[in-house]
Design brief:
Blueprint (H helix, E strand, L loop, with lengths): L3 E2 H11 L4 E4 L6 H7 L5 E4 L3 H15 L3 E5 L3 H16 L3 E7 L15 H4 L6 E4 L6 H13 L5 E7 H5 L1 E2 L16 H11 L5 E5 L6 H14 L3 E4 L13 E5 L5 H9 L2 E5 L22 E6 L13 E4 L2 H9 L10 H14 L11 H11 L5 E4 L3 H9 L8 E2 L9 H11 L5 E6 H4 L6 H6 L5 E6 L4 H10 L14 H7 L3 E5 L5 H9 L5 E6 L4 E3 L2 E2 H9 L1
Parallel strand pairs: 2-3, 2-4, 4-5, 5-7, 6-7, 9-10, 9-12, 10-11, 12-13, 13-14, 15-16, 15-17, 17-18, 18-20, 19-20
Antiparallel strand pairs: 1-8, 21-22
Helix pairs in contact: 1-2, 1-6, 3-4, 3-15, 9-11, 13-14, 18-21
């Protein structure tokens, strides 16, 4: 091998691993890596804030099933990016973050922007390390890709001292991560089906990370063959097309009360890829870890997750995509008649997504219902967090993977960077981002990134002039004592135009669809601001209603 500087060795290793695109905010601490990227064929998406860059990389990984890669500088850069690392951790997303670091000969002197990244990221990342020898760069990068994708996927952080990147070495590249053959056998599938087919009220819960369009089709086929109702876990709505007759809704914050009761009454849960966390189980009240009262069949790639909270009656350490592919190929053996149970679950879902009127001239429930009806089959919808998301999760009928991107960690500001990443990966697909006024203001500077790289997405801003979710809880707990939740907002349409995009303001529901059509045809990033009544806190709940609940 030729003598190369560390930045070139690093980038050549990324190319070997099949990396096509990275996200970054530049810093002098990794100039050699930027030099390595020059002319490499790897697209470097230069972002405006490290948090946005990390979220774009995380969304890229969700879409592709391959580790997202982000470069940030030391100190403030890494601190800003930590929010994206947390999203990757809670969402089980493979992510690799490279952090520029001080010259390692100055370590432990509190040099400029010095941070101990092993300790800083220890609770957030699967693995955090610092590279101290240039000739070991291929080894560390190889391990990072293995760690990010093994078992339960997650984030890895590698710190790169600037003297290590600028030094030269003669070292061979390490081949990419070897493909893993399917990890389940026929006997394991037999065991799953044997226990499932004894149930009278089964429920399938689909979730987890590293999904594919084929897996969504396989899940639908399995559900059809067996006549099973399928639920999605929190913010994994695109695991099956929500228009499918076997889809019964999502186990989410503010879930359908009838679905919650169905979860409680089910005598068998087939959990595919998802962790059984607090949101899916209604705060562990709908399914009690100490006494679940039902058979639990848990499929998860990490053996350490099986039995960690809920004791499974059958635990299978395997990727959900492998198990679902096998299940889709099976004919249903003899089992109780589940037809009425499944039809009732679907009917409850359809009733739940019928819009319920809220106050104001712009009805968010109608807007999302209209959006859901008019989107093409290949549309991708993204969102962050806020009370607007409760409307989206209730009324949007997500398309099959990759139809929906959202953070299970509940991170505000996520939807917009995720939409940019989605559009860069799927330029032929319409990409719609829904964001609250508080949510959007956390990453709106990435409008510049979208404009620079031609990510012509449509952003729908739900502007109610407040941090709505916090206001809702505030009214329930401390009624009529509004504190710290009001917002001043810019003229969003003018802001979009200032960035060279298209901007409109919608003040009545009937204005929305024409505005959406114009936005989709604009040929630049487009923004539609919905002026909402602040009294509408969530579907079916107003300020007065929240105060009444507080007094009851």
């Amino acid at each position: 091998m030729a003598d190369r500087h560390g930045g070139q060795i690093l980038v050549d290793q990324l190319k070997t691993q099949g990396v096509r695109r990275v996200f970054s905010v530049p810093g002098e601490s990794f100039l050699a890596a930027l030099d390595g990227l020059y002319g490499s064929g790897i697209e470097n998406i230069v972002c405006r804030h490290e948090g946005g860059a990390a979220m774009m990389a995380e969304a890229h990984a969700k879409l592709t099933g391959r580790p997202g890669v982000v470069f940030v500088t030391r100190g403030p850069g890494a601190s800003n990016a930590s929010c994206g690392v947390h999203v990757a951790r809670q969402d089980s997303t493979p992510l690799i973050m490279f952090v520029g670091q001080i010259d390692n000969r100055h370590r432990d002197r509190e040099a400029f922007q010095e941070v101990n990244y092993r300790e800083f990221f220890k609770p957030l990342a699967k693995w955090a390390a610092e590279i101290d020898h240039t000739d070991r760069l291929p080894e560390y990068v190889s391990r990072a890709f293995h760690q990010a994708q093994s078992g339960r996927p997650g984030p890895v952080v590698l710190a790169l001292p600037e003297n290590i990147l600028s030094a030269r070495a003669d070292v061979a590249d390490i081949p990419p991560v070897a493909p893993t053959p399917p990890s389940v056998c026929g006997e394991q599938i037999d065991a799953v089906l044997d226990m499932l087919c004894r149930a009278r009220r089964p429920l399938v819960i689909a979730g987890g990370s590293v999904w594919s369009a084929q897996t969504a089709q396989d899940l639908a086929r399995f559900a059809e063959n067996f006549g099973l109702p399928v639920c999605a876990s929190f913010r994994r709505m695109d695991r099956i097309d929500n228009r499918h007759p076997n889809y019964a809704g999502d186990l989410a914050v503010g879930m359908n009360p009838k679905l919650a009761q169905r979860l409680r009454k089910a005598d068998c849960l087939l959990v595919l890829g998802s962790r059984l966390g607090d949101i899916v189980t209604g705060g562990y009240e709908l399914v009690d870890p100490a006494s679940p009262g039902k058979t639990i069949l848990h499929i998860h790639p990490d053996p350490d997750e099986l039995g960690r909270v809920f004791r499974p009656d059958l635990g299978l350490a395997a990727p959900a995509v492998d198990v679902i592919a096998r299940l889709a190929q099976r004919d249903a053996p003899a089992h109780p008649d589940w037809a009425d149970w499944t039809r009732a679950a679907r009917a409850d879902y359809l009733d739940w997504i019928t819009p319920r009127e809220t106050p104001g001239a712009v009805k968010l429930e109608q807007v999302i219902h209209q959006l859901s009806e008019c989107l093409p089959d290949n549309a991708i919808v993204t969102n962050g967090a806020g009370n607007y998301a409760a409307f989206l999760h209730r009324y949007l009928r997500a398309r099959a993977f990759p139809g929906h991107l959202a953070p299970t960690s509940g991170s505000m500001g996520y939807g917009f960077p995720a939409a940019i990443a989605a559009k860069l990966e799927h330029r032929e697909r319409p990409v719609i981002c829904l964001a609250g006024d508080g949510c959007f203001q956390m990453t709106l500077n990435e409008l510049s990134t979208a404009r620079q790289y031609g990510a012509n997405i449509v952003v729908i801003i739900c502007n109610n002039g407040q941090y709505g979710t916090i206001r809702m809880h505030q009214e329930k707990t401390y009624p009529a004592r509004v504190s710290g939740t009001e917002l001043f907002n810019p003229d969003y349409a003018a802001l979009a135009r200032a960035y060279g995009g298209h901007g409109e303001r919608v003040t009545r529901t009937e204005e929305f669809l024409p505005a959406l059509k114009r936005a989709q045809q604009a040929g630049v990033p487009a923004l539609i601001e919905l002026v909402l009544d602040p009294d509408a806190l969530s579907p079916g709940l107003t300020v007065d209603g929240a105060r009444a609940l507080a007094g009851s």
